[in-house]
Amino acid sequence: KHPLEFRQLKITDTKILAPVMKRSAPYIEGYVHWGTYASRWNFQDVQKFISARCREDFPRVHYLFLIGKEPVCLASFAPMPHALDAQIALAVFHPHQGKGIGRSVVATMEWLAFSVWGFEVLWYQHDASNRNSQKLAVRSGFAFHHTFDDVISAKNETGLWFSHAKVKDEHNPPGILQGADMNHWAIPRTHEELNALVHEQGAAVKPSHED
After folding, report:
1. Looking at beta carbons, which pairs linking 1-4 to residues 24 or more positions away fall under 8 Å?
2. Rounded CA separation 200/130 (Å)
């Protein structure tokens, strides 16, 4: 009955995220580091986690995806060695997994990366044992690039990681990193205007009209 929407994460989201993160912990702890601890977190622990992420410097930007008022996914950009590259990471909350939400989130993060921010390469990385993430990368059009070893931070990880990449289309307009006016994305818009703008540029879901 409600569309999938998104907005930037806010410190005040603690109230709606605390029960969701605790409930989802057993389903994501195998591949999401904070999931290992979330089942034991109290309200203050969740608030500390969210506050820390809201204070992080660009390009670490975190987005909350919702259906109605229900949080369904937390997605983020992370830095890469090249300044115009970014990595995406996401965690779909229980019981919304397996419904295609991850693919819509990835498509929207791609739109934000290329059409809004102006990154040149978007990376998707996952542990070798995370088959669902591997399928999501392939279905989202990412091409395998290389493997690398990393520290094991979740119980199901092997330490061998796969890295996939997607390059910005040459026809994409310049983004904020190329000097585009940030106010273009900051000015107030009606729900209908946001919906038309996002679909015109190919995103899978629309920004929440709350922001």
Report:
1. 1/68, 2/67, 2/68, 3/67, 3/205, 3/206, 4/65, 4/66, 4/67, 4/72, 4/101, 4/104, 4/204, 4/205
2. 33
Q: What is the pLDDT of residues 139-168, one digit of tens each?
A: 999 999 999 999 999 989 999 999 999 999
The pLDDT value given to residue 199: 67
Is the pTM higher than 0.85?
yes
- Neighbour tally for 121: CB within 10 Å: 17
134 to 64, 71, 113, 130, 154: CA distances (angstroms): 22, 24, 20, 6, 17
- Confidence (pLDDT) at 38: 94
pLDDT at residue 183, as a whole number: 82
Distance of CA 147 to the CA centre of its chain: 22
Sign of CA dihedral 136, 142, 143, 147: negative
